[in-house]
Amino acid sequence: MAEATTKPDEATVQIVYVEKPEAEEPEAFHIRTLAAVLGSEEAATDAVIYHYKHATSGFSAKLTQSQVEQLSRQPGVLQVVPSRTYNLHGSRGGTSGVMGL
Fold first, then answer.
1. Is residue 23 packed enough to be buried (19+ CB in 10 Å), middle (13-18) or exposed (0-12)?
2. Between helices 26-38 and 65-72, what is the axis angle to 10°?
3. What is the pLDDT of residue 2?
4. What is the pLDDT, as a whole number, of residue 4?
5. How far, CA to CA in Å, does 88 sit from each of 84, 85, 91, 97?
6. CA 22, CA 80: separation in Å to the nearest integer?
7. I want to staple 49 with a disulfide (CB 3.0 to 4.6 A). Which of 31, 38, 60, 81 is the partner?
């Protein structure tokens, strides 16, 4: 399956993994970290799609490649990766054939 190509200035959804903040609420840390790249807390708030706070610490946001590169250099940012959607395909008979039902 071929990877979709994007233009450098086209924003795509990215998952940003960050260190868990100790002295700050996760959402506030996410916004402050992203605002350093986007220029304002308002722009950061508008860009964030979801805050991850339980199983991992991070957020998802629509970012250009340049913004990804800048964000990757921010203190506390561990990794920035493209969001991917996977479609799970079962057997033609549904799960009953797989499960022996």
1. exposed
2. 120
3. 46
4. 55
5. 13, 10, 10, 16
6. 21
7. 60
